[in-house]
Write a structure and sequence with these properties.
single chain; alpha+beta; 5-stranded antiparallel beta sheet; 4-stranded antiparallel beta sheet
Amino acid sequence: MLQSCAVALVVALSGQACAPTPDASDTTAASAAPTGDTIRIARSISEDLAGDGRPERLTLDARGPTIDSLRVRLEIRSPEDSLLLASSWASEFYFQYVDRAEMTEAAADSTVRKHINAVLTDSAFRNGVAGTVSDTMLLSMMRDAIRYDVATHQWRTANSLAPGDELPPTAHEPINTLARAVPRSRIEALVTELRDRKTFTWFAGGEVTYVIAWSDREQRFVTVFSCC
């Protein structure tokens, strides 16, 4: 895998932040989950990630029968409501490095809600990634993440996958092959463009963290750091 681990960098990034909007909601009533999901946690926020003065809409929806089996989906939509990016994961990954069996239900509930609530908090949005670590380390990690992101986008486009569609497991090997052929000039152009752009970071459990930024050049969100 050509993706690089960047957990330490995610903590180190600095910049301007934005707080959740008042319409964020937290629903645990069964009536809010007609499919049998007894727990639902919903969050939303508006943030200008593209830098054009027109905020995108970010939503997070987590639902399921138990707190450790929630299906979590993050979406970013344009001001016109078109889907720009989507990411999904399971709340069980929040317990990857703890013994769930030894936790009370209250402790498990607190753990999941803490992580979910952190996705759209002020610290998730930062201005610029340059200058927080040594240039050599920073640029190497950015290049690896961008190379794999470009290859993934190429594969998704060739296979007509929409932004909200998940990659099948069979995609990883051809994406790795494509990544080895991404022109260095394209990678360098994106590094130059994105190193000072506003970023959005989220944690999906275990060691999985993503940092993205909007690219005018690509007209889409590009992953500038990822782990693992």
